[in-house]
Amino acid sequence: MEILAPLVLLAPIAGFVVNALFGRLLPRRVAGWVGAGSIGLAFVFALLVFSQVLGGQKVDQTYFTWWQSGDFNVPFNLYVDALSTLMVLVITGVGFLIHVYSIGYMRDDPGYSRFFAYMNLFVFSMLLLVLSGNLVWLIIGWAMVGLSSYLLIGFWFERRSAVLAARKAFVMNTIGDIGMVFAAFLIFLNLRVLDFQDLFNRVHQLPKGGAVITAICLLLLVGAVAKSAQLPLHTWLPDAMEGPTPVSALIHAATMVTAGVYLVARMHLLYDWAPTAAATVAVIGGVTAFFAATIGTSQVDIKRILAYSTMSQIGYMFLAVGIGAYTAGMFHFMTHAFFKALLFLAAGNVIHAFHDDQDIRHMGNVRAGLPITFWTFLIGTLSISGFPLFAGFFSKDEIIRAALNATGGEFWLGVLALLTAGLTAYYMFRLFFTAFGWEWLAHDDRHLHEALPVQTIPIVILAGGAVVAGYIPVASFLTPVFGRAVEVGTAAFIGLAALSVLVALVGFAVAYLLHARRPELAVAWRTRLGPIHALVEHKYYIDELYDRLFVRPGLALARFLNDVVEPRVIDGAVNAVAAAVMVEAQDVRGIQTGRVRSYALVTLGGAVGVLVIVAWYLGYLPWKFGA
Amino acid sequence: MPVPASTFLLLSAVLFTLGAIGFMVRRNPLVVFMCIELMLNAVNLAFAAMSRYLNSLDGVVFAFLVITVAAAEVVVGIAIIVQVYRAGRQMDVDELDLMKE
Amino acid sequence: MVVGFAIVAAWELVTAVGVVAFRKPMYNALSLVANMLGLAVLFLMLNAQFLFAAQIIVYAGAVMVLFVFIIALMNPEADISFIPRGTEWIYGVVFGVIFAALLGALLFNRGLTGRPGAFTPEVIAATGNVQTIGILLYTRFLFPVEVTSVLLLIAAVGAVYLAMRRIR
């Protein structure tokens, strides 16, 4: 096992190096398969690790000491347990499928090998984050993931909007990074360790619910919120859709944005010890879930709708880990990875078919032209809406059940989550009916083509996962990490299931009515709810708010510093010194008269000076001080 | 030795000072040079005197080396002065300021 | 002995003033020659016979001859007025006086002592002044001797070069 874990890391970084250095020299197909193959290889290693973890093994292996000064000792160690194994499997498995898809999707792009290089770099960073055994390397992986995200969002860097979006994402991620680093400072200051195993052993030394542990957890939460695009640091995610669709699928749906959830789950012992912080997590999650779902109902860009849906589903995960239902949260993470990746990739096919137009109002009725995409997208939609027998149903219900079971505020969060489920069904089916339609057109003069097999096969596999994943016993697999999950009575199970199915059906029905049968009703309702609709369509004007509050003052400050401080103060200081030196030099120049005599005079004067000193030293001169 | 060392040294000092004053005051480069020689001689006298009174020959040897160096210096200095003369410039130390900054 | 010293000292002072004060360069040069001869006598009094000979042969005999030749060759007029240009000469005189006073005070009162060496006049006389100095030159002071020879070489080269070059 000791060798396997690093191998999982080495495969993607090797792929990155090959594609980065030689990518442009290799033929296209080779570069693509190198990129995908390295992740596939990592997946194989991950499976081997999995088989060992299944047998009950857990590893905390140090490979070398990275930094040591005083008692600040940071080794490079990897922590392999059920939680990290689950993450690794999902990252490499789903990641591999997405890479294969990209071989087809990106085939016309000039930056082909660069794309795969960046994607491999991302997978490596994410794996590093997940496998790391101490907080420092987790933060390193965290930052590298942010970097990869920046590179991939801004992949089409000639597009101004893409570059701006990449920058926005990076700035917000950096805010999160600052929180993480400060959390690390606090942890080290109080507990003198950064290694997970030691940290977990020592947490109980701090007073439960005290200021220190709460501050640590809240600061970690800042990082999680930024990375997972939860309120209030969420505005970068919709803009991140500027990147290519596989990027959106991998990074902004299945993996990177779930890093925040992983962080809280990994630090669950800390969060158990700081109830206030945990409650904050849950509230942020629940509110974001609802909030994002409402926005999703009004958007018209297919990828943006999916982005808000991601935000919403991650809200569910945050809610789960916030109330202590860690297994439920990770279960939902796994199912979400399947169906969200599926939804994005299928959307990619449709976008390509409509010549890169992402407006859903221009699409519709693709059942005949893109059959495989059509059916797989439907499966994904059913899964995310929580229809029975699909994966999303099981995982979402577990979360709602855990919330409703609890007392106090958490119950109301559960109610909110239930409402959100209804909204989710509504907007996802709105998307489905508008963009995909239900009609089967025998003759279509738009000439839509289904995608290449290299693109459709991964989607089909993912669709299978979106159905089957619900039956995987994740809870029992994660027992060594989180302890036994609470048993649920059959009555409660069925009762809640019925309730959630009902809610989902309502959402479906409304969507069907407004968007499949009677579109004119949709228009009517939009005008009726005019102001509300405008509010939601403009994302509650949060972007504008942030612009006024932070961006404009920041730019003004930057401009002030650049135009006023820089030339006057900084350059002025430097120039003043130079000018002073010049003036002095001009005056001193006069010494060089060119006449021997004046030089000799100076020499003689110096000799006299020396004699005076000697005389004084020997006591010949009347005054003596400190001789 | 009936004459104390300090007397010799005083004489040496006076000669040196005379040389220095002459160096500062005169304008003919040749005369200036001669004043320099006077100063060197004064120093030689000091060396020799101390050598005698300390029962050591180091001073004498050093004075000898000073004479040698003075000879070399005179050679080069005279050459320069001759060139200045040949170039038609004023034989005036104050006028020769070509190396002015 | 003291009388002899007093006479020679007076001769030194007078000729030194002559070097500084005369208008015509030739007179200056001759004064300097006289000064050097007086100095040679002083060396003799100080039991430095070798230095006495070297002073006369090298200094008075070669260096001063060169001086005299050049003065005769160039025949500069005694035109240069005694009044120096500018105010520097005042400084010079002032400094000089201070210098002299200090030196005198330092040297006269103090009764300077150093570390006595081994070469008493009797010891020197046993081997002979010149021989002793010769031995010293080639044992203890070998390095300075060699350096000085290089210096002489440089001076010779420099003189030849300067004599060739025309100053524009």
Low-pLDDT runs of 5+ residues of chain B are none
- Which stretches of chain C are low in confidence, meaning pLDDT under 50 for 5 or more residues running? none
Largest interchain contact:
B-C, 74 and 91 residues
What is the helix tally of chain B? 3
Query: Residue-averaged pLDDT of chain C, rounded?
Result: 82
The backbone outline of chain C, from C-alpha atoms, is: globular
Beta-strand residue percentage of chain B: under 5%
Could you characterize what this model shows?
The complex is a heterotrimer of chains A (627), B (101) and C (168). With 627 residues, chain A is mainly alpha-helical. Helix content of chain A is 74%, strand content 3%. Chain A has helices at residues 4-22, 28-54, 82-105, 112-131, 135-153, 160-191, 196-202, 211-228, 236-239, 245-254, 259-266, 268-272, 275-296, 302-323, 326-353, 371-385, 391-405, 409-436, 453-468, 474-477, 479-482, 490-517, 519-528, 530-537, 542-589, 596-618, and strands at residues 59-69, 72-80. In chain B, helix 1 packs antiparallel against helix 2 (29-53) and helix 2 runs antiparallel to helix 3 (58-86). Chain B has three helices and no strands. Chain C is mainly α and 168 residues long. Helix content of chain C is 78%, strand content 0%. In chain C, helix 1 (2-21) runs antiparallel to helix 2 and helix 2 (25-45) packs antiparallel against helix 3 (49-74). Chain C is globular and about 55 Å long. Chains in contact: A-B, A-C, B-C.
Describe the SSE topology.
The complex is a heterotrimer of chains A (627), B (101) and C (168).
Chain A: H1 4-22, H2 28-54, E1 59-69, E2 72-80, H3 82-105, H4 112-131, H5 135-153, H6 160-191, H7 196-202, H8 211-228, H9 236-239, H10 245-254, H11 259-266, H12 268-272, H13 275-296, H14 302-323, H15 326-353, H16 371-385, H17 391-405, H18 409-436, H19 453-468, H20 474-477, H21 479-482, H22 490-517, H23 519-528, H24 530-537, H25 542-589, H26 596-618
Antiparallel strand pairs in A: 1-2
Chain B: H1 5-25, H2 29-53, H3 58-86
Chain C: H1 2-21, H2 25-45, H3 49-74, H4 88-110, H5 121-127, H6 129-139, H7 142-164
Helix pairs in contact in C: 1-2, 2-3
How would you summarize this macromolecular structure in one to three sentences?
The complex is a heterotrimer of chains A (627), B (101) and C (168). Chain A has helices at 4-22, 28-54, 82-105, 112-131, 135-153, 160-191, 196-202, 211-228, 236-239, 245-254, 259-266, 268-272, 275-296, 302-323, 326-353, 371-385, 391-405, 409-436, 453-468, 474-477, 479-482, 490-517, 519-528, 530-537, 542-589, 596-618; strands at residues 59-69, 72-80. By secondary structure, chain A is mainly alpha-helical.
